[in-house]
Amino acid sequence: MPVEIKELVIRATIDAPSDNRPQAEESSSALDAGQIQAIIQACVEEVMKQMDRKESR
Description:
This protein is mainly α. The chain has a domain of 26 residues. The longest helix has 24 residues. The protein is extended. The two termini are 20 Å apart.
């Protein structure tokens, strides 16, 4: 029997960087601006798809 998720709640906590941790710009694993934009675009597209699906019900 398939399970359908009717609502998904996502919570996030963002802390200011402390002095003993490297900032995102200094980290070797930091994403460049193009990668960040690609992630944002993919998220926006997925949200729009979900909204269209919800409206069509």
